[in-house]
């Protein structure tokens, strides 16, 4: 009978080849549609689709505030639930939990449209593993990391969440 035990965090990082991500946690690109023609965007040509594995851990529990130009679908896979916070352009806050407990309101998928500020957080557990499908494909030129003071000026009513999920100083 196959071993169905949930792997430990070190096994997940090693076996999936994950590396630290600039927004927090770990990641690895798993797909890019380089077999199809690119898509013209205001930022230049992009793949039609890219995907990654993304991992938050007890030691790296936060995906800091950032804004993507592309739409992203998040899929929960293993470990503990991952909490998401989204601030829409009009200032509306939306929250969601990706995880296994559907009866508790967890989701297996979450769509975050381009232009929405997003942060994620592992509240408990050793890790939460998700994947993301990004269309048009992800390019660092299309991502903005949240700067605490700028976000506080723009969305003052969400100050606690902004402070909790931004770094005190911008990442170089």
Automatic annotation (TrEMBL):
Q: Which Pfam families match?
A: Cupin_5
SUPFAM superfamilies from the xrefs? RmlC-like cupins
Q: Which InterPro entries match?
A: Cupin_DUF985 (IPR009327), RmlC-like_jellyroll (IPR014710), RmlC_Cupin_sf (IPR011051), YML079W-like (IPR039935)
The superkingdom of the source organism is Bacteria
The DUF985 domain extends over: 11-145
Q: CDD domains from the entry?
A: cupin_YML079wp (cd06121)
Q: List the PANTHER family hit by this protein, alphabetically.
A: DUF985 DOMAIN-CONTAINING PROTEIN, RMLC-LIKE JELLY ROLL FOLD PROTEIN
Identification of the protein by name? Cupin domain-containing protein
